[in-house]
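Pipeline run #58 for the internal structure catalog. This entry was flagged by the ingest filter as a single-chain record with no existing model, so it goes straight to prediction. Upstream metadata was stripped on purpose; only the residue string is passed forward. Reviewer on rotation: M.T. Logging verbosity set to normal.
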Amino acid sequence: MSANRTITKTGRIGMPLAVVPAVLALLAAAPAAQGQVRGAPVSSASVAVGPQYDTAHVYVSPGTSTAFVRSWLATFGGTSTTPVVTQVTPTPSRAVSQLVLSPAGTLSVFDYRTTIPYPFGQERGSDMVSSFSRGVDAAVHSGAYLVVSPFRDPIGKDAIVQFPGGVDTQLYWHTKPTSYPKLATIPENRVYLEPSAANAFIRDYLAFSRGRIIADDRHADGAQLGRPGTTFRAVLISSAFGKTLVIVTDGHLPYPFGRETTGYAVSNLAATLAKAKAAGARVLWGPYNSAAIDTAIVQFPGGYIAEIHQPGHQARTAPLAGH
């Protein structure tokens, strides 16, 4: 989905994983799930373009896109395109659409003036692919389901695929080459799954992204999810699309956990939260400080909820620390 029709688009408690003492075993690309319709084998080469082209999709309350963009840029810095009113779905709709390029991540902002056609609004973001047909084929052959068939927009093509666990992602391609600046830090796509779906998602997403598992903590501290005294599994995947944190829980999550879809890394959490609050955002949870991570969850004007983090004191001094 395009963030505007002249320039478009672009998918986490990542820091605790950064301090895992050693990089854990890599997971090879696995066969796709049984039952998925397949054609000829696809290339093993990645179809990713780069993490700066993988955008978080931000659906704001009607009439709040200006306030959201102003608040986000005041918090993280960056630039935005001029908002335009356009149709960004294959069926009739109208939305104010705008692209935000910040050092912490790229966002496509949608302020709908009509109802939102299904299933748009459920996708967490967009992944740009170097070849549209190969990108769609790679997703389907890896086990994802095509939930919105390919459609054209004024500057390229789009489709929505769904990975196991109900994880919707939009794939897009531009007719003319697009250049976005590299990111200062790579955001993390935060995927909450229950145990029976987690392995299937990890298998299929690795096959699609050609990524690797860089950490798999089966006893992560539940205090990071607002549940001290419990543990959860946290699997960090890195690929040319960026980072994905698979958070495996029993689903007993206090608000606002699970409402955020992306985590943003910063060098100074306290300073970032001060900027966010001064720009109209609210801290919904935290800050939580530990040896592994300092983290908080923030709601920006318009309703967008994001996790923001920096390495904890142990990570800042550990040889393998970094993000």
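catalog note: The mean pLDDT is 87.
catalog note: The radius of gyration is 19 Å.
status: ready for reviewer M.T.
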